[in-house]
Amino acid sequence: MSENTFNADLSVNIAGVRFRNPVIAASGTFGYGKEYSAMTDISVLGGICTKGLTLTPRTGNKGRRVWETPSGMLNSVGLENPGVHYFIENDLPHLRQLGPVIIANLSGGEPDEYIKGASVLNESSVDMIELNISCPNIKAGGMAFGLDPGTAAVLVAAVKRVCTKKPLMVKLSPNAPSVSAVSLSCVRAGADALSLMNSYKSMAIDTATRKPVFENIIAGLSGPAIRPIALCMVWELFNTLKEAKANVPIVGIGGIACTNDALEFLMAGATAVQVGSATFVNPNTMAEIIGGVHNYLVENKMSNISDISIRN
Ligand SMILES: Cc1cc2nc3c(=O)[nH]c(=O)nc-3n(C[C@H](O)[C@H](O)[C@H](O)COP(=O)(O)O)c2cc1C
Questions:
Q1: Does pLDDT of 173 surpass 50?
Q2: What lines the ligand 1 site, CB under 6 Å?
Q3: Sign of the CA dihedral with 159 first, then 238, 278, and 69 last
Q4: CA–CA separation, 308 and 271 (whole Å)
């Protein structure tokens, strides 16, 4: 086959759901699809994770919500969202027409809120649910469920019981004392896929006012600053799952801003990647990464994305 007719298959399968390519918009950085439609071609994306949804609407955190930091940003949005019912009636029909796989990111303050939210989404047309047990900037719930293996397992098992029609991807926290222990307990409790990582617990102080920048004090660090840490966590998670003979796909997240970054995560064992903060800088980042990964495969005579793996 000559170079210019060689084509590579970028499609991946995550928990039975086919993505046309492994590039997914990360939760909270791409709204509900509409927000970016005038700035980039959304139809080329592999998937879209919605902003974190809760059973009932939330107004989010008060005060400052974002803060720039070297090679990254801190956010304290605090799960502002219209609630699952509004989302299903008003946003999902539009999202469904765009083409990419639709993943509903679900959060909650207490287990019952997660379970009820999952039951509602289970009856909707979303393709997958991403269970956010890793949000560092809400006062109750969120990350609190993702730090301890036992607590995480109880929640995942309870959500899985009602999630009968949708694959369940669990979004892990980099702040857990043992990400391996939490990940294995989530898998044993029924997680069909794991995404890693959410933003890193962080803070900033305004020295002029001598007050923390964020009303909630703790915020989440994202962007290129966290990329090497996220990559290492994905690599360790991949090896943990391999040792445990757990055949569960990983979606790598954290500071991915260009083709090379995405390739690193795919080589470290991720089946797909999510791109968040980089989209704020360049709305075409994901489209460029998709093209770049395709070119890399063609240049290296690989016909399938699954041929990408690390040499060590
Ligand atoms: C402004 C903002 C809002 C976010 N909201 C959510 C959210 O609602 N749910 C969630 O699981 N992650 C949320 N995240 C975390 C991202 O999905 C992602 O895990 C994190 O930003 C790391 O990826 P990045 O470095 O590519 O941004 C948010 C991140 C940012 C920057």
A1: yes
A2: 26-29, 51-52, 75, 77, 79, 105, 132, 135, 171, 198-199, 222-223, 226, 253-256, 275-278
A3: positive
A4: 10
The letter for the amino acid at 239 is N
How far is 42 from 99, CA to CA, in rounded Å? Answer: 8
Question: What type of residue is 115?
Answer: I
Whole-prediction pTM: 0.96
Strands 200-202 and 219-222: antiparallel
Expressed in angstroms and rounded, the spacing between residue 5 Cα and the centre of ligand 1 is 38
Question: Which DSSP string corresponds to 16-53?
Answer: TEEESSSEEEPTTSSTTSGGGTTTS-GGG-SEEEPSPB
Which residue's CA is minimally distant from atom 21 of ligand 1?
Answer: 222
CA torsion through residues 235, 46, 7, 247, sign:
positive
Dist CA 268 CA 270 (whole Å)? 6
Domains, the chain, in order of start with CATH, read 12-60+79-202+223-307 (3.20.20.70)
| pLDDT tens digits along 21-70 | 999 999 999 999 888 999 999 999 999 999 999 999 999 989 999 999 99
